[in-house]
Amino acid sequence: NAGVTQTPKFQVLKTGQSMTLQCAQDMNHNSMYWYRQDPGMGLRLIYYSASEGTTDKGEVPNGYNVSRLNKREFSLRLESAAPSQTSVYFCASSAGQGFGMAFFGQGTRLTVV
Amino acid sequence: AQRVTQPEKLLSVFKGAPVELKCNYSYSGSPELFWYVQYSRQRLQLLLRHISRESIKGFTADLNKGETSFHLKKPFAQEEDSAMYYCALSGYNQGGKLIFGQGTELSVKP
Hints:
heterodimer; A: mainly beta; seven-stranded mixed beta sheet; four-stranded antiparallel beta sheet; globular; B: mainly beta; six-stranded mixed beta sheet; three-stranded antiparallel beta sheet
């Protein structure tokens, strides 16, 4: 009963380094999302994928890229990490139809120094 | 503009006291409203959604379309209720594309 699984859980990067956050869901959901969580700002949508083969920008897409590898997997890439990208990143999935609810992964705590 | 506002950053109450976490929203259309809870360093979990009209862990929330509010209430707070609470909304066919409020940290003291 895994639900939404993210890797890694923690990561420290130096400014300018790149990395990919991985996310997989086993609920056969059509839609997947990446959010970042910052104190006092709630969660903000970075990118989302309404269905396999499609991706769209959310509220804060700058500095990120995504890949919807297949229906299960949705990765988030930081090409050149900056200290402003220090945050907790959450992946989520939903059926995407009607008023469906979202299920969240356990989060990735990223620090860029 | 689509927006969710939680006016309180921190709410501190004593065990057994009533709790009300405020949430106001702005949305053109008929959104679905949610309350998510995040216990210390854990993933977000759905607490309530307005269309299900159920009570979870003693919490209830009523959608007031006139006041565009979706306040979360519990008559008697417990220490284990201490957590971060987020109000969020989504549109039809956008179930995971959520707009979140800033969050309210609830601290229940013994």
